């Protein structure tokens, strides 16, 4: 198993728009493409409270590439993402980390 940790750093005041897009649009596309989430978090204490962190579970990097690329190429997703940013951009930058559990990890 591989865990992908993604951190979306939002433009100031745009975190609510990102949360709305995930809850009302993105998660439906994740389900359509079999993308399995572990969880989503906002930052309570840290350098910025304009971030959304989430983790996805993959069996392999090949599975991630196949499913993520299909999701990203979906014309309906592209249109809905663009519509959500018609007023102004939501995300300033994205960090992505691929994590693999160690032998003593509770999640493997």
Automatic annotation (TrEMBL):
Chain segments annotated as transmembrane: none
Domain NIPSNAP: 3-105
Superkingdom to which the source organism belongs: Bacteria
Pfam families assigned: NIPSNAP
InterPro entries in the record: Dimeric_a/b-barrel, NIPSNAP
SUPFAM superfamilies to which the protein is assigned, alphabetical: Dimeric alpha+beta barrel
Protein name (database record): NIPSNAP domain-containing protein
Lineage: Bacteria, Pseudomonadati, Pseudomonadota, Betaproteobacteria, Burkholderiales
């Amino acid at each position: 198993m591989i865990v992908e940790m993604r951190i979306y750093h939002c433009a100031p005041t745009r975190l609510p728009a990102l949360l709305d897009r995930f809850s009302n649009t993105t998660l439906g596309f994740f389900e359509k493409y079999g993308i399995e989430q572990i969880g989503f978090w906002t930052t309570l204490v840290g350098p910025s409270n304009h971030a959304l962190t989430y983790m996805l579970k993959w069996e392999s990097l090949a599975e991630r590439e196949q499913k993520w690329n299909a999701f990203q190429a979906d014309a309906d997703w592209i249109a809905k993402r663009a519509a959500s940013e018609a007023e102004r951009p939501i995300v300033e930058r994205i960090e992505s980390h691929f994590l693999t559990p160690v032998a003593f990890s509770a999640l493997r």
